Amino acid sequence: MIRLPLFRGLCCSLFLLICHPNFAQKQADDYILKADGQKETGVILGSFENDQYNTVRFRSAAGGTGTFGPGDIQGFGFQSGRKFMAIRLPGSENLEFVQVLLTGKLSLYKANDKFYVNDGREIHELKAFYDKATVAGRETRELKKPYLGTINMLMAGECSAEIYDVLADTKYDDYSLVKLLSKYHYCEGITYEQHLPELPFVRISPVIYGGVTYMSMSPASRPENRKDAFENHQTPIMQIGIKAHQFRRWKRLSIDVSVGYSKLDNTIISEYTSESQYMTAKEVFSASTITIPAFVNYTWTRAGSFDSYIGIGFNSRFSSLESEFAMVDQTLTHNGVTTIYETEFTSINEKMTTAAGKIGVVWNFSKKIGLLAELQLDYLPAFYQVNLPFNEASYNQTNTSLLIGLRF
């Protein structure tokens, strides 16, 4: 068994790892394009790759750090393949960093959730907007798609008929527009390059955890002159489940659902004193619990291959208690008669669903595999009932679980 000071030390170590993950340094595989066109490798500083940048902080491979705007450099790019260039868009007098999704005869740009196509002579905005419409007497919103006409005009040629079906189904988003323009260049036999990583909408990964749960008790209701002591406050726990993560659109979000099992062997010793009697009791029991925790997690910081996150959710538990030995010793003060009898006096709430929270850190040492460390907490009101004859008490239980896991 892990002693309480060691358990607290492990929890503190996890907390420090989550809050100060700066020891993990990103590899120098990003780059900037200087004003003279020279490419310099290094690291673009920041937790996450964003879709919009006003300035970019860059640390070169030589160690120098600087902040650059669209007037200082031609552009920059990430190890993942994403690329930004300093471009003057239609209707604007200033340069701004624009995400380049595809380069070719028709280059595709994105800025402020709008898309543009550069045909080499002019940059054309791809427009889409909602307009009010009345359907069956009800007012609704209808998406207008003038961008389809603009693209159709720009792609006019021998491949127009072949790509018409793709054009008709093209949505106003990154992947759909890149797919359309890629098919156009391929059909025309024109060289092109994508700068948008091909990512699934979401990645689903199995996870397995092992660890220990520390339980602290507090009285929910207890008569005066009553004492109860639980001897064991910790138990091993195992969990297995799935994690939805690496959402294409919501990079900081993840969702996980698990099924866990734990078994606690424990002993409770009770004492009650009043003017009429003195009572002691002891019960040895084992409590088995199946848990189903579910969390929505938010990653607040990333340093290299380390992500730190916080999660909120709920924990459903199904518990059973089996008594191995129970004895009550009751002495009446007015005549000194002592009665000893065997009777079970401890029970638990068999079905509960309560709010839960956690903090954690994951080391992504490959695209699929990650090592996780989590601190999970939940609170069980009136979980234990300890009912001596004509003398009832109930106890809240607070669970703090330290888990180490593997995501595949």
Automatic annotation (TrEMBL):
The record's InterPro entries line, in alphabetical order, gives:
OMP/PagP_B-barrel
Sorted alphabetically, the keyword list is: Signal
Query: Where does the signal sequence lie?
Result: 1-24
Q: What is this protein called?
A: Outer membrane protein beta-barrel domain-containing protein
Organism, per UniProt? Mariniradius sediminis
